[in-house]
């Protein structure tokens, strides 16, 4: 009877693709995709069944990428190297296995692992972290050992290429389409909420990695989403609810917007352009209605409140005024109504403070309050009227 093996990757080509990102071929001249490979492995870990060799490669590679003295402290870099190296060695020579109990050195000998790795792991675990020079050399030797004992035995398959060979529009667009594929087609079987969320986070992490590695990626992503009609359910009719789609895709889009704030501006512009210029039977067009619902959700819902600062509200209003039809008129009304609520918020807050607060005992705070920008007041920031100015660590006594 054939043995069934569950893997975190869908096809072997995906594993080869990640291998080529960690160990690029000599002929490869594209961008550095190692961070993308680390993100893919992190997403695979959500599914489970990730081999230790794959996880260790990602951890060691991530430690190397973390090795930047201008951004991180030397102690942080040494700690990251030590943690990645110790996990790599411990996962291979751990004595808590079935069968005869053996020492770590015996296990290392059986696996062909250098004994110096076990000694260095013991030093990093029980004594001071090794020097940075030693850790860098150990990480490089570990990656070489992983290549010789795991990655080199994986044969290439047709189509197993890096995400994109060059930083051009066609290659990046193809990589984005491939990353969005898990969410492109609906599942015939019911899927649990946790599995949906994990799948959305996995897709979002891959999109972020592609955009990090490619300059035009963040600008091309909104166009790919709209061209593939991923944000509008297939077969949707006029009046159908869009709540499930909004909830599922907002998880992905918010994750991308957190890493790339300009993404929301590009997405809003492309959506309003599509809505404004699609004037054919606009009032009865389900696609136009879906775009209207998406724009209202982004521009007015509390979910997007933090990221809405980068939205081009004036451009949305100009596009609606320039191409007036049923949905653009409704959208302009919603945007103006939201703008009135936002502008009225600071007035309401200041009025409430006047009614509730006690008389000011510090005359200088009045002038300071007026210096706060309207944006800070609109987001709930204000001055604490009474505060204790004692230094930290001082206890008042009678």
UniProtKB/TrEMBL annotation:
Pfam families: Las1. GO terms for molecular function: endonuclease activity. Residues 351-371 have a biased composition (Polar residues). InterPro entries: Las1 (IPR007174). GO terms for biological process: maturation of 5.8S rRNA; maturation of LSU-rRNA. One of its GO terms (cellular component) is preribosome, large subunit precursor. Coiled coil: none annotated. Residues 341-371 are annotated as: Disordered. This is Cell morphogenesis protein Las1. It comes from Penicillium salamii.
């Amino acid at each position: 009877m054939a043995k069934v093996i569950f893997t975190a990757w869908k096809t072997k080509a995906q594993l080869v693709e990640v291998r080529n990102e960690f160990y690029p071929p000599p002929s490869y001249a594209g961008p550095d995709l190692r961070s993308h490979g680390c993100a893919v492995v992190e997403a695979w870990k959500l599914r489970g069944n990730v081999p230790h060799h794959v996880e260790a490669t990602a951890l060691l590679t991530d430690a190397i990428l973390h090795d930047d003295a201008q951004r991180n402290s030397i102690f942080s870099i040494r700690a990251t190297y030590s943690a990645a190296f110790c996990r790599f060695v411990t996962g291979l020579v751990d004595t808590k296995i079935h069968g005869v109990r053996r020492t770590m050195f015996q296990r290392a000998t059986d696996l062909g692992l250098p004994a110096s790795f076990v000694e260095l792991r013991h030093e990093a675990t029980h004594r001071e972290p090794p020097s940075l020079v030693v850790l860098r050399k150990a990480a490089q030797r570990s990656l070489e050992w992983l290549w010789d004992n795991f990655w080199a035995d994986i044969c290439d398959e047709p189509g197993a290429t890096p995400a994109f060979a060059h930083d051009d529009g066609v290659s990046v667009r193809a990589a984005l389409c491939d990353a969005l594929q898990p969410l492109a087609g609906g599942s015939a079987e019911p899927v649990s909420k946790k599995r949906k969320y994990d799948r959305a986070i996995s897709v979002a992490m891959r999109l972020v990695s592609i955009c990090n590695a490619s300059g035009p990626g963040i600008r091309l992503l909104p166009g790919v989403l709209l061209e593939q009609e991923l944000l509008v359910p297939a077969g949707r009719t006029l009046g159908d609810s869009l709540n499930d789609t909004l909830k599922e895709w907002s998880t992905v889009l918010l994750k991308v917007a957190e890493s790339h704030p300009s993404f929301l501006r590009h997405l809003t512009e492309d959506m309003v352009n599509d809505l404004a210029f699609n004037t054919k039977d606009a009032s009865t067009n389900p696609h136009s209605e879906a775009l209207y619902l998406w724009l209202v959700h982004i521009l007015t819902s509390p979910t997007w409140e933090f990221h809405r600062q980068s939205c081009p509200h004036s451009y949305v209003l100009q596009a609606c005024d320039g191409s007036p039809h049923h949905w653009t008129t409704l959208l302009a009304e919603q945007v103006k109504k939201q703008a009135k609520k936002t502008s009225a918020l600071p007035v309401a807050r200041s009025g409430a403070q006047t009614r509730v607060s006690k008389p000011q005992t510090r005359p200088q705070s009045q002038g300071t309050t007026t210096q706060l920008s309207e944006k800070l007041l609109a987001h709930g920031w204000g001055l604490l009227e009474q505060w204790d100015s004692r230094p930290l660590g001082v206890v008042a006594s009678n």
